[in-house]
């Protein structure tokens, strides 16, 4: 069974990696293509990733509101598709259906490099998620480094949430509010390779005792880490390796994925 899962994941990965060959021959480079290595770049894109918990699909659509200095984008991520067949994380509860969703509405002021985003996550296994709003600011480039600090706040929500007295509240509830402080970081190696490090610290602001003490991976707060290594295939496409873990989750037990991105 293990060999069949590895073979299936490898087959999908080979297919994903082979996509650029056909696309590159047909693509016509245009002057309005955005820099895909820029975390604040707004453009219409699609991505597919093979992870240790299944297939991820990401769709981003650029939109306009009439202001030439403003760029808007809606991004939807669907995670964990076919996880029981393709995933190889033995300690994670996998199924072949979607295990989590993420939606972001991003707005960028192109004049000053300031952005804002509404971020909504939902974990189907835990029947819980977070709705947050945050601000980002692109700082002046220093040598090969670009930094984009972020500050935000949000609300946690859950279905049948555990209460302080050990009971469960029937239906949807809001256990507490939280703050998020973090940064998107980019290091440019050369014209085709770049690295990203994105740390985020989340902590409870107010709420139930259970949320304040155990609302973040069983703790009162959590520092998460995301590292990405990216290779530019063309002005329209790239391949990226991501690793996500935290202070409470070891690197080996985190989420690992290889993702192909294409800009329309």
TrEMBL record:
Domain of life: Bacteria
Name this polypeptide is given: Lipoprotein
Leader peptide range in chain numbering: 1-25
Keyword annotations: Signal
């Amino acid at each position: 069974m293990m060999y069949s899962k590895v073979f299936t994941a490898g087959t999908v990965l080979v297919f994903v990696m082979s996509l650029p060959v056909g696309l590159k021959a047909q693509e016509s480079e245009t002057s309005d293509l955005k820099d895909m290595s820029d975390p604040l770049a707004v453009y219409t894109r699609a991505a597919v990733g093979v992870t240790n918990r299944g297939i991820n699909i990401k769709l981003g659509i650029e939109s306009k509101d009439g202001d030439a200095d403003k760029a808007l984008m809606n991004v939807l991520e669907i995670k964990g598709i076919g996880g029981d067949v393709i995933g190889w994380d033995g300690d994670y509860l996998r199924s072949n259906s979607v295990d989590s969703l993420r939606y972001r509405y991003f707005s960028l002021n192109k004049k000053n490099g300031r952005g804002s985003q509404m971020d909504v996550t939902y974990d189907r296994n835990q029947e819980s998620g977070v709705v947050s709003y945050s601000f980002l600011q692109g700082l002046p480039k220093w040598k090969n480094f670009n930094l984009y600090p972020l500050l935000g706040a949000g609300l946690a929500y859950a279905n049948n949430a555990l209460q302080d007295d050990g009971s469960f509240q029937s239906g949807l509830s809001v256990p507490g509010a939280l703050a998020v402080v973090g940064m998107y970081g980019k290091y440019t190696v050369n014209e085709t390779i770049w690295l990203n490090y994105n740390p985020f610290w989340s902590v409870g602001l107010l709420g139930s005792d259970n949320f304040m003490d155990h609302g973040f991976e069983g703790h009162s707060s959590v520092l998460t880490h995301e590292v990405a290594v990216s290779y530019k295939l063309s002005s329209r496409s790239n391949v990226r390796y991501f690793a996500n873990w935290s202070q409470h989750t070891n690197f080996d037990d985190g989420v690992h994925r290889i993702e192909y991105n294409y800009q329309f």
